[in-house]
Structures are given as structure tokens and as C-alpha cells.
Amino acid sequence: MSTWITYGLFLLVTLGGGLLIGSQTDTGTWYQSLNKPSFTPPNWLFPVAWTILYVLVGIAGARTFLRAPTSAAMGIWVVQLLLNFAWTPVFFMAHRPSQALIVIGLLLISILAFIILRWTPDRIAAILFLPYAVWVAYATALNATIAVNN
Predict the structure, then answer these.
(1) Which listed site, 5, 105, 121, 126, has its alpha carbon 20 to 30 Å from 32?
(2) With respect to CATH, is domain 3-149 assigned 1.20.1260.100?
């Protein structure tokens, strides 16, 4: 498989999966009624941030697949994406912030594990995950506050 096709497929999976889940999620009145912390970002920021992050995640995944397709890092990449895609239905569709906190906590751990595993063999892939780690750490704090306050 060509390098460009690999990158295209990884971007399709990350962006396409995120877009599909986002388009099926009604944040509506339930989310608006929650007692949210003062550090909650404006709603318009979420799709912008996630689009950028999914591109970075896709590139890091493609790089890892091309260099080490059967590695532990590739397995962790798959796990983090599954956890990422699972969080939205748990939080927004099931209205379960406490259970979503478990999912996002595991997601953050898997992101950090990916960074550690890729740091030496592919520092670029690891660095691509750094903004993702920061955003998910922030989202974890947001999720935790919502779980406690509601």
C-alpha cells in the first residue's frame, strides 16, 4: 500500500469517525442544562479543536503503521481511538458523565502510553500526540467537574 493511501485511510478513519459520531450526537437541552464550570469553552471551539486533533492523530497513526504496524504502540493507537469514539455516546447520548469520566481517564492514559512508546522510535508521532494529551487532560478536568456538579 502506498504511503499516501495509508495517510489518507488514517485521516479518513479519524476525521470520518469523529464527524460521524459528532453528527449523530444531540448536545441540545441536556448539555445546556448541566452545571458547567467557569472554564468551559464556547461550543464553537469543540469542532475546531477536534478537527485539528483528529488530523494530528491520523498522521501519528499512519506514521506508526508505516514504521511498526504490529507494535504495542499501534495497538495503543487503536485503543485510544476506540476510547475516543466511545466517550461521546457515553457522555452525550447515555447522559452518564461519571461513566464518561472513566472512559476519558482511560483515553488519557492510552494517549500518554502512545507518547512514551513512540518518543524514541518516532519522536514526530509522539509530538503530534502532545496537543491531544493537553486537550484530553483539559476535557478530563471538565468532565470531572461536570460529574461532580451534576
Answers:
(1) 105
(2) yes
